[in-house]
Amino acid sequence: MPRIAYLGPSGTFTEQATRALTADFDAELVPHDDVRQALAAVRSGEVVAAGVPVENSVEGSVPATMDALVSDEPVVAVAETVLPVVFDVLVRPGTRPEEVSTVASHPHAIAQVRGWLEANLPRAEVHFAGSTAAAAAAVRDGEYDAAVAAPIAVERYPSLERLSAGVADVRDAFTRFLLVRRPSPPPEPTGADRTSVAAVISDEVGTLALLLSELTLRDINLSRIESRPTKDRLGEYRFFLDFDGHVADSRVGDALAALRRRCSEVRFLGSYPKADRAPSAIRPSASEQAFRASARWLDDIRAGRIA
Ligand SMILES: O=C(O)C(=O)Cc1ccccc1
User: Fold this and answer.
1) Is the pLDDT of residue 287 over 90?
2) Does the predicted interface ipTM exceed a cut of 0.85?
3) Can you name a GO cellular component term (predicted)?
4) How far is the CA of 14 from the centre of ligand 1 (A)?
5) CATH assignment of 1-84+172-184, among 3.40.140.10, 3.30.70.660, 3.40.50.620, 3.40.190.10
């Protein structure tokens, strides 16, 4: 049975997402304390893949995941899923709100319940944990008084109870998760795919604008752009781009080759079916057919076949 790592311990949103991402086959899910360790297990071959949180509709990207994706040996995403995110606030049985002096969770969870905490636990000191379930385990162990956790956590930590359920400052928040593995041929194109890359650009006038133009010119819809310092030099940034299309699509392959020429470093982070399965709208001039026809036309010219 394939072993698949996830950001644990048991009871995280990432566990829920990883179960959804591996629903089609039997897998043994292995919790890891942070994303870096989960990806290290992928890189070493200890597991075949890992489920990791990547971005949230309220709080944006998960920086630990961005950094872990581009450090060390290459890894690629092969699938994504999106989960709605609402939280439970868990306490040891009998704890009353006025007795809660510390509350812990993953930074992304805390960011999404700040308003609720101010209104309901205004005196509680906030602590960050490696994951929502790590916070629940710490409450069980008496380290903190309350945890902001995923709805599945109360089943995994039966010695805790809900102080409040369905907590979220912003209704309809979603988090996107990726299933990541060692490089292998990407999944077949579906017509509704996403491609992720990380590119380091040189510190010259207009480089970012030119990079983006390479996508625009080919009708490629950008769904995310995020920068993180390369950590090598002050002012040097790596841009994480997610855009519609599959590396097997001519327009995407063409754009990737252009990025490779323009950037000092480009890391391909995968082409995989979009969770919403929504096909992207492409003008006829950027269709596969148009790209292939124009390539044939050029080949003909080069071979002296001019009609
Ligand atoms: O800690 C978790 O449960 C995670 O999976 C990370 C996370 C945190 C907050 C919202 C979504 C995912």
Assistant:
1) yes
2) yes
3) cytoplasm
4) 6
5) 3.40.190.10
